[in-house]
Amino acid sequence: MHHGKHFRRLNRTMSHRKSMLRNLVTQLIQHDRIKTTLPKARELKAIADQMITLGKRGDLHAKVQAASFLREHEVTLPKLFGPLAERFKSRKGGYTRIHKMGNRFGDNAPVAVIELIDGPGDLKNQVLFKTLARHEAAKSGSIKEIVEALSTKESGSVTSTGLKNKAIARHVPKVLSSNKWELADLERKVAEFSIQGGGKRGKIFDATETKA
């Protein structure tokens, strides 16, 4: 019977597919975010979450399991069992996020950026800071008013913030809780983003340019 055997083969043999995913998860841990095709990013997401879970376990067996799959051990293992395990210590799952980036010129393949969330230069946080900076510049309301409106948890609280993008408005409490920030911390981040003229966005490692 062929039950439970349906997954993306990515037009590769099993050995080539496994080798490619090992390279991708190694690059993701090294660079925090990489650019690849959307089907590869979706396959990579589950494997990256498993690696983070091993990092949070932190015992000898977890290190042996991670070392058997990852490459570049001198870089990936200390980062996985150190900073990444600490970053996601209180998070129960969902350690990665996929951003669709349109289609690639040439073969029209769908491209995406997959990143480890809550890191420096988190793309969704960058969009939030940019939105709040524009909101303040247009004098549509202060950050304090937005946070207070969202803290009420009443129906229509998201609409009352004045932000057109409701998904961005709902992301404000998540940023505050995951980073353990107060209102002043969020205001400082938005101010830094405004002063830097869009913030410092790290270069995205392009995994589509490497041979995997």
UniProtKB/TrEMBL annotation:
GO CC annotation: mitochondrial large ribosomal subunit
Gene Ontology biological process terms in this record: translation
Superkingdom classification of source: Eukaryota
Record-linked InterPro entries: Ribosomal_bL17 (IPR000456), Ribosomal_bL17_CS (IPR047859), Ribosomal_bL17_sf (IPR036373)
Keywords linked to the UniProt accession: Ribonucleoprotein, Ribosomal protein
Record's keyword annotation contains Cytoplasm: no
Presence of keyword Ribonucleoprotein: yes
Coiled coil: none
Any one GO molecular function term: structural constituent of ribosome
Family from the record: Belongs to the bacterial ribosomal protein bL17 family.
Protein name: Ribosomal protein L17
Lineage: Eukaryota, Fungi, Fungi incertae sedis, Mucoromycota, Mortierellomycotina
